[in-house]
Structure formats: structure tokens, C-alpha cells
Amino acid sequence: MCSWCWGFAPEIEALAAELPVEVVVGGLRPGPMAQPLTESMADALRHHWVQIQERTGQPFDMSGLERGEDWVYDTEPAARAVTQMRELNEEATLGYFTRVQEAFYAEGADVTEADVLTDLATEGVFDVDAEAFRSGLESEDSKRRAWDDFTRARNWGISGFPTLIGELSDGRLALLARGWAPAATIKERIASVA
Band of the pLDDT at 193, cuts 50, 70, 90? Predict the structure, then answer.
């Protein structure tokens, strides 16, 4: 549920067509850090979303910003869903990650809801069982996996999203992108550190 990550989706998909990509969810506003969607937060998000749309061409449906303060901008459910997909069908993780973003940003879906996340996972393209996905999503294991990812990202020093790091042949990590960057630029960076 990171708007710049949604903007970055076509670039990461282009890279994933040529290189293996592992999704590690970073935890933008999870659980205890989640916030109600106040009017000032909605205005700030709207401003950012317009900028991202102009820069990247990715579509945004602003209707979700009208949910009001009763709605809490909690990124943990979506993060748990991505780690649950990774558990059930690892090869589908990036596709599902992107589908959740598309549903939230371009379609105005409420991806804090387990029913929505389960429906997205079982649209037919991800090859997972609805009952297995839903029960796993609501389990303590999915919460632990998501929070393990958040910790992993922070241990790498990641504090902004999206961040793309590459693992070199000797096991070292190299920063390839902090924030949005075109796939061609990232490919150049990969070539320079390889």
C-alpha cells in the first residue's frame, strides 16, 4: 500500500521479466502505526497520488480517499496477504503484490479487508485455494511472516519505499533504487555492480 510502489510496478515487472525478484514487504503503516484517514491525510495523499500519476502514468482512483476517519490506513493486512501468497504460491508473489496495489490505487478497493484480499488471491490467475488463503491470512503465522519482512527491511537500512536491492554473486547487497526509477536506469546500475 505504498503509492510510489504502485508507480514503480511497471518498472519492477519489466525487470522481473529478465531477473528473479523477491518481494519483501516493508511495513509502511502497519498495525500500531496505522492511522485514521483524516481530512488532512487524505489531502496529502491526494497531492502525492496526483504527482505519482503524472510522473509514472499509473492510474489512481481518488474515491478511496473519501472513506473518512472511520477508516484506518493499515498496511498490515495487505502485507500479510502478500506473505500468505508467497507461502502458498511463491512464483505468484510479485503478481499478487501488484494486483493488491492495483485494486487499492486504481480501483478504490479496501485492501484492509480480508474478504477483498482473498477475492484478489482467488481471481483464477494465482492458483490458490480460497479457504487455505483466508485461514492462512488470519493466522498468527502470516502476522509473524509480515513482521519478519518488516524487520528484515529495516535491518537492511530501508526506510523509504520502494527500495530495490540486488544480491551480488559474493552475497553482498547493492542498492539499485531508492524510490522510483526507470527500469533502464536500474539495468545500468545492475551492470555497474555485477
Answer: confident
* 22 closest CA partner among 104, 108, 76, 86: 86
C-alpha cell at 145: 511472516
Amino acid at 178: R
Distance from C-alpha of 7 to C-alpha of 2, rounded to nearest angstrom: 9
Q: Which of 10, 19, 7 is nearest to 187 (CA)?
A: 19
pLDDT tens for each residue of 71-93 = 999 999 999 999 999 999 999 99
Name the residue ranges covered by the structural domains of the chain: 3-152
Q: What is residue 59's three-state secondary structure?
A: coil
What is the value of pTM for the model shown?
Answer: 0.93
How far is residue 116's CA from residue 73's CA, in Å, rounded to a whole number?
15
3-152 fold = Glutaredoxin (3.40.30)
CB atoms within 10 A of CB 68: 11
**Has residue 24 got a pLDDT over 90?**
yes
